[in-house]
UniProtKB/TrEMBL annotation:
Superkingdom classification of source: Bacteria
Protein name as it appears in the record: Outer membrane protein beta-barrel domain-containing protein
Record's signal peptide: 1-23
Keywords: Signal
Organism listed in the record: Sphingobacterium lactis
Length: 155
């Protein structure tokens, strides 16, 4: 009986550990370049992404372009595709504040995207749909916004 219980406990630990490992992002922290493009100005700037463990991650970026500066932070839920090595998907949302001319804009930025971490190199790429819901100065919603990211991963 003791051997059976021990075997079941070991099997449960393996299954739990396997499921937990699949839920994590393939790196702890990454820094790189973000490009925000689509309908309107194209913005470029530095970004950092950090995994908080499991499927939870945060990302921050400062973007510049066309006499405009945007600062944003996002929460994302990340999962790896089963049977792939480094390819995952994520969904998230976060606030963004923008400065241009005499005005300041406050926005909410939902996102849904794909990320690929090259297994043999400390490099990751992402592409996402990241619409902009402006909450100030004639509130509007711009669905035609996307972002690309090129990151150096740190363990």
């Amino acid at each position: 009986m003791k051997k059976t219980l021990l075997s079941l406990a070991a099997a449960a630990a393996l299954v739990f550990g396997f499921n937990e490992a699949k839920a994590q992002t393939p790196y702890k922290t990454a820094i790189g370049l973000a490009i925000d493009l689509g309908d309107g100005a194209t913005l470029f700037g530095p970004q950092i992404k950090h995994s908080f463990g499991g499927a939870n991650a945060g990302q921050a970026q400062v973007l510049f372009g066309d006499n405009f500066t945007a600062i944003g932070a996002d929460y994302s839920y990340n999962q790896q595709f089963a049977g792939t090595n480094g390819l995952g998907w994520y969904v998230g949302v976060g606030p963004q504040i923008g400065f241009g001319g005499d005005l300041t804009w406050f926005s909410i930025r939902p996102q849904a995207g794909l990320e690929y971490k090259i297994p043999s190199a400390p490099i990751a790429f992402h592409f996402d749909w990241k619409p902009n819901w402006n909450l100030s100065h004639d509130t509007d919603f711009n669905a035609a916004r996307f972002s690309l990211g090129f990151k150096f991963t740190l363990r």
